[in-house]
Amino acid sequence: MNAFGEALPHLKTEVPGPKSRAKIDDLARSECPAVTARRARREEETGVAQDPIVWKRARGANVEDVDGNIYVDLTSAFAVAGLGHGHRRIREAAKQQCDALIHAMGDVYPSDVKIELSRRLAQITPPPLTHSILGLSGSSAVEAALKTAAVHTGRPGALAFWGGYHGLGYGALGITAYREEFRRPFLTQLNPAVEHVPFPDTFRPPFGLPHEATPDRIRDAVLTHIRQKLEGPATACESIGAIVVEPIQGRGGEVAPPEGFLAGLRQICDDHGLVLIFDEIYTGFGRTGAIFACEHEGVVPDIMCVGKAMGGGFPLSAAIGTEEVMASWQLSSGEAIHTSTFLGNPLGCAMGLAVIDTLVDEEWPTRVDRIGRRIRKRLEVFARRYPERIGRVRGRGLMLGLELVKDQESRTPNTELSLALTDYCRRRGYLVLPSGRWGQTLALSPPFVVTDAQWEGFFAVLDEGLKTLN
Ligand SMILES: Cc1ncc(COP(=O)(O)O)c(C=O)c1O
Asked: What is the per-residue pLDDT across 197-255, written as a single tens digit (0 to 9) for each?
């Protein structure tokens, strides 16, 4: 058997095993019931039993649960462990930093590593993005970006996209439009000056365009729609100060927009004096085969939000803007008007620095591009083998998805199959997650270090699942 990290799945019990089940029952006695998805509720809603497994340790592409079952993780735990779980350089950086300084005073007495991370971020982001505000979650980075745009333009509103996911804090939730139920209980408390428009999805064209509509036509339809909104008679749009977009929608289903779309948004923002915000929280740090996804098109936003993989597992994020946009905040007069207790936590900064160094030294963006093309080709073979089940292979780099349909003609989302496949794979030791607005996409955002044997094992299970599941 290969070393833990490069091992194939090895299951000793049913999934989830008895220890996982007992611990999840225990958790239910002390955790808010809305947090961890339990078997009974999910089964009621979806017909698929998915009581969680409880993780105990992880390394490389492997995770072990409390029952001693070993899995291959093809989620990177929400696209965080891109370099693999527990990468040696990240662990060592964390240990060293633990011995030196765990906590400093972010905006009052910053640590040396925070200053170093700020400098390195400015180096790896496309110019002229140089000035950052650090945060602790994707949501907080998005909120820092929204506040910056409001301060810069004097306009507190934003334009965002259906299917977009930007986090669930009150500010971020105002622009998140992934699922209506996330917003419904809080609608009256969300920023009223937000407009949502369709994302240019070439598999599910907006505005009633036919399935055969070309990517260019879909792109232009969305861009024209945005212009019309901004230039139309005085409406809520007059208070819009920013456009926020994921260069590839992540939780929305690994949906890449047509070429030229990001450039089109750049032009609109320039024409209207709007701040362009790219949410690269999912796509950043090598995931799509470039350090940042916007590099593929050579389009630079005014603010870029990063998080997830940035901290190598430590909660760390940033909104990185141009000097001009960030200067709108003006000099701190001693009482920072945007900060938090743990801003620039030294442990996180040390781990973030190790992530950047490893990503660059080991040339992961190029490698991810190469591996991603290879995996995509294999998924395309599945799409040809199961044309009535797989509507489209989605995504780029190692941010991929299989969009599942009830039939190719109607393209009706096949949520049931996606959930059943997720469960089927897990029972055979492969962890995947559903994505997409209806949960219809089988999402793959694996650690970059998944071995060939692990991939082959997964493909065999996927084939079996697609062949046998209803
Ligand atoms: C693109 C994007 N933005 C923001 C977020 C929110 O990040 P967090 O959950 O760390 O607040 C996510 C999380 O999935 C995301 O995918």
From this structure: 999 999 999 999 999 999 999 999 999 999 999 998 766 678 999 999 999 999 999 99
Pocket of ligand 1, candidates 248, 282, 287, 399: which has the most ligand atoms within 8 Å of its Cβ, to mutate?
Answer: 282
Residue with CA nearest ligand 1 atom 7: 138
CA separation for the pair 240, 467 (Å, rounded): 49
Distance CA 94, CA 104 (A): 15
Q: Using alpha carbons, select from 246, 315, 255, 325 the residue that is nearest to residue 281.
A: 246
Name the one residue in this structure whose structure tokens are 């949502």.
196
Burial of 41 (0-12, 13-18, 19+ CB in 10 A): exposed
Report the alpha-carbon distance of residue 156 to residue 398 in Å, rounded: 35
Strand pairing class (240-245; 157-161): parallel
- Single out the residue of 304, 368, 339 nearest to residue 83, CA to CA: 368
Q: Per-domain residue ranges for the chain?
A: 18-73+364-468, 88-361
- 79 CA from centroid of ligand 1 (Å): 10
Q: Does domain 18-73+364-468 have CATH number 3.90.1150.10?
A: yes
Ligand 1 binding pocket includes 281 (Cβ within 6 Å): yes
Q: Spelled out in words, what is the top-level CATH class assigned to the domain 88-361? A: alpha beta
Low-confidence ranges of the chain (pLDDT < 50): none
Is the whole model's pTM more than 0.70, yes or no?
yes
- Nearest atom (ligand 1) to Cα of 246: 1
Q: Tokens at residue 149, please?
A: 């745009």
Cα(112)–Cα(90) distance, integer angstroms:
18
